[in-house]
Amino acid sequence: VHLLESGGGLVQPGGSLRLSCAASGFTFSSNVMSWYRQAPGKEREWVAGISSGGGSTYYADSVKGRFTISRDNTKNTMYFQMNSLKFDDTATYYCRTSIRGSVYWGQGTQVTVSS
Length: 115
Hints:
Elements: E1 2-6, E2 9-11, E3 17-24, E4 33-38, E5 45-50, E6 57-59, E7 67-72, E8 77-82, E9 91-99, E10 102-105, E11 109-113
Parallel strand pairs: 2-11
Antiparallel strand pairs: 1-3, 3-8, 4-5, 4-9, 5-6, 7-8, 9-10, 9-11
């Protein structure tokens, strides 16, 4: 199982970024996928999830209405469109999945919101 995030970077408040998570080594279309983030000095927190088919999405209150999770099962890739970014969104963002009780993480991609 391999998860590879990309798309992070430095952005000004109010700006946008689109993260990607490329998956391999498992049947991507059968798995629920999630985005988590970890800010400096804080615990890792769940921010969004998407069902295997993409028809159901879930968000933490902190990002609801600003971020959109999606997936393309033909490309084995999950996305995270982040709009109206705030200073508090600064964190390392991770994609995650669980297969038969084992949890898998990507290496993370850094998002920094700064003026």
